[in-house]
Amino acid sequence: SIGSELSRQIAKLKPNKLILLELNEYALYKIYEELLNLNKNLKIVSLLVNVQDQNKLETIFETFSVDTVYHAAAYKHVPLVEENICEGVKNNVFGTLSVVMASVNKDVSNLVLISSDKAVRPTNVMGASKRPSELCMQAVYDHTKDINTNFSIVRFGNVLESSGSVIPKFKKQIKEGGPVTLTHEDVTRYFMTITEAAELVIQAGAMGKHSEVFVLDMGDSIKIKDLIYKMVNLSGFTVRDEKNPTGDIAIKITGLRSGEKLYEELLIGDDPQKTDHLKIKKTNDPFIPYLQLDEDLSKLKVLLDENKIHDVKIMLEKLIKLYKSNSRIVDHLHVEKLQLHKYQQNLPDKNDKNFNQRTYKDNKVIKFIK
User: Fold this and answer.
1) Which of 178, 229, 267, 318 is the most exposed place for a label (fewest CB within 10 A)?
2) Element (H, E) at 129
3) Active-site residue, from 76, 106, 118, 130
């Protein structure tokens, strides 16, 4: 959704050419058709690309003489990344590294990384994968001599009506008569409209030179419970609670999801600096020297290829000192493998005189393992 809104606004600025890189075929087709109607004179190129393919990126950047790259290709849904850890880390970390290296190698003028407030003191894998993506930007810039690319990192919170927003979900639940699901009564989030977020990303990207981290002013954080009450009331209904037992829509507390925080932060340190834009601040966050980061990323890549989920999380904790996972591992592949291992350990011994062949065959789970 951020990439799409950036494309809409960039199309209005009349660039010579707009190149869309996307892995999802339908998403690419949909935004391409929309952009054609916005600016019929604009040359738009649609390319199906995996962002982790550095060689392909370099070919594209060189062939089309790309000046500016906005990197928004991240897996950002917290529960889904918790359930698919290796793919989430591969895409968010090594996808970013591919974009960074391709941009440097092909002398792209400007590279803007779209980051997240979840990268600050992360408690989930999504945030713990976004912070290394920032580190890749910072380390490569610091290490590369005679670099011709201006780097900038833009960090912000939740965007209204984005693909990861709770707003559409709440609307649907209200329309269906409830209940509206809330993970915790005290959970709070920062919110910004998608239009404003994209506008500020473009502004911040124009300021960036030395891999600075820009933080968008999201205003005050909002209590999600209060947001639900407002949405219910604006829909012409009332909330059913202790004070109003005859209300229309109930709120159901479901409990914090794996990796979810009660509140998000935008700053690692406490020293944000002003910029020329009132709604954009700049922060100097510490980073890892490139040679050390490269060594750690090489080890991380091996663990990802071998699908060693537990070790991947340990490696992320080593990389991101402020990463403190607040949940057990819920990665589907990891959990299923543990279950299979447990069943295999409990398989009956066929040589045992008490072994019952009929019972063994009738047990579908054990039969499947066999």
Assistant:
1) 318
2) helix 125-143
3) 118
Burial tier of 16 (Cβ tally within 10 Å: 0-12, 13-18, 19+): exposed
Residue environment code for 212-243, b if the CB has 16+ CB neighbours within 10 A, otherwise e: bbbbbebeebbebbebbbebbeeeeeebbeee
Is the CB of residue 108 less than 8 Å from the CB of residue 91?
A: no
CB 157 within 8 A of CB 192: yes
What is the DSSP code (8-state) at residue 305? H
Residue 262 is classified by DSSP as S
Q: Is 114 exposed, middle or buried (0-12, 13-18, 19+ CB in 10 A)?
A: buried
In whole angstroms, what is the distance from residue 127 CA to residue 108 CA? 27
- Do 72 and 21 contact (CB within 8 A), yes or no? no
Q: Band the pLDDT of 348: cuts 50, 70, 90.
A: low
Closest CA to 108 of 4, 36, 228, 208: 208
Q: What is the pTM of this model?
A: 0.85
Instruction: Give yes or no for residue 346 having a pLDDT over 80.
Output: no
Query: What is the spatial order of strands in the sheet that 249-253 belongs to?
Result: 180-182, 249-253, 239-240
* pLDDT of 1: 85
What type of residue sits at position 118?
K
Read off the pLDDT band of 322 (50, 70, 90): confident
Does 118 participate in catalysis according to the annotation?
yes
Contact yes or no for 139/147 (Cβ under 8 A): no
